[in-house]
Amino acid sequence: MPNPFVARLMVVAHSRLGDRKVAIRHLISVRGSTGLATLECGIPPLGWRDMKISMAHNFYLDFLLPPFDEAALFVDIEYPDYFAQIRAWDRATEELFPTEVCKTLSSAQIKLNPLAVPGVNLQKRTVDDVADRLTVILVREVEDDYQVQPGDAEFWFRKAVKAANYILAHLRVSTGVARITLIPQYWKPGTGTPGVQIPHTVIWVNADTQEAVPFVEGLNGYGSSGAIKVPETGLAVWERFAASVGPGNDPILAESLLMDAEESAIRIGLRESVLCTASACESEAALYASNQVKISKSQLARIVKADASFAERYYDLLPLAVAGKSFQSEAPDAFEDIKSAYQERNKLMHTGKFSTAITSLTEEEQFATIYRWILSARRATRWIRSL
After folding, report:
1. Residue 162: which H helix or E strand, with range?
2. Cα dihedral angle (304, 307, 309, 313), rounded to 10 degrees?
3. Cβ distance 184 to 198 under 8 Å?
4. Which residues pair with 86 in a beta bridge?
5. Can you state the angle between helices 270-291 and 332-351, rounded to 10 degrees?
6. Quick one: how far is CA 160 from the chain centroid?
7. Burial per residue of 170-191, b for 16 or more beta-carbon CB atoms within 10 angstroms, e otherwise
8. What gap in Å lies between CA 137 and CA 157, rounded to an integer?
9. 2 with 44: CB under 8 angstroms?
10. Cα 289 from chain centroid?
11. To the nearest 5 percent, what fractions of the chain are helix, strand and coil?
């Protein structure tokens, strides 16, 4: 009778993604009578000679990550100047809240009492919506006398969020499970970096010695319940509401699409935001073209098939021919915005990616640019609707 055993084989597949190399480690389990063994995977040797800082980010999710047969999710991504390790919570061998920082976070409670609405009392415990954990460990090389600089913590935290969302996005699509969502974020227009809306912890240590590396107020770690949106939504204007609901139809499609675009931008869904923005401009222009009676069908066909951009055809040439007005002339800056938005829409539809006009911008600049496009599209669609 063979001796009982457990083995896990690690299959590593490499592929190139731009300037980074991805190693997907799939742990294949072989069962024996003693159950499943555990495998502690540390940071692989990268040939670095100076001090390495390990920055562990634990993101607490409100859904369960699907297991890969008997294996846990484990992905390595090697960038030119740092290394990322993304792995799911191993429910068989790890605690959901493994460190003291995590345990402290698990006991946190939050109360919101809107001053404008007496009697409303919103309460939230960190553990109420926690079902799983995704850990992102970033490792980078620094000089032995490294000193934390202002903005370092936020800079690397944003990279951890991006790495986590990169994996979650691919997991969502490859499994076909819509319940898997990206780490929810909220960006308030006009502000700096967005806030993460789920509980998370961050801990920095020396990757070799495990000694603490203080990076925030003399500490090497912190826990956060995540940003919580206040329930207030501002004031409504009755006249606008009455004008919208009065005809008995659904809300104007372009206006709804632009609200979707704004919501996507606030949630950092920038691709979806651009697609909604361009679609709003297109739907309103198409309605204008089909409803006008000033020019013939042949003249209309020549305009819409002209060798010009979408914005030039529908927000300059067409209204100029029909009403003697041009959005390009009346609002040149906003016109350039909708022109750029539609060009990015085409780039996304044909390649799935933004052009370098967007990717060359900082994250904050991307938010600001795309949000400005939304405002310009709202101005353009209302302008052409008024003709």
Report:
1. helix 152-175
2. -30
3. yes
4. 75, 136
5. 110
6. 12
7. ebbeeeeeeebbbbbbbbeeee
8. 10
9. no
10. 36
11. 40, 20, 40
Token output for 361: 């911008």
Count CA atoms within 13 Å of residue 337 on its CB side: 22
> What's phi and psi for 55, nearest 5 deg?
-115, 105
Closest CA relative to residue 207, chosen from 26, 18, 42? 42
Please, what is the end-to-end C-alpha distance for the chain in angstroms?
Answer: 87
Helix H or strand E segment including 86: strand 82-88
pLDDT tens sequence for the chain (387 residues): 323 222 222 333 333 333 344 443 333 322 222 222 222 333 444 444 578 999 999 999 999 998 877 667 888 998 888 999 999 998 888 999 999 999 999 988 877 777 777 777 777 788 888 999 999 999 999 888 888 888 899 999 999 999 999 999 999 999 999 999 999 988 877 666 778 889 999 999 999 899 999 998 889 999 988 766 777 677 888 888 888 887 778 899 999 999 999 989 988 889 999 999 999 999 999 999 999 989 999 999 999 999 999 999 999 999 999 999 999 999 999 999 999 999 999 999 999 999 999 999 988 889 999 999 999 999 999 999 999
Place of tokens 């938005």: 341
What are the structure tokens assigned to 11, written together?
């299959």
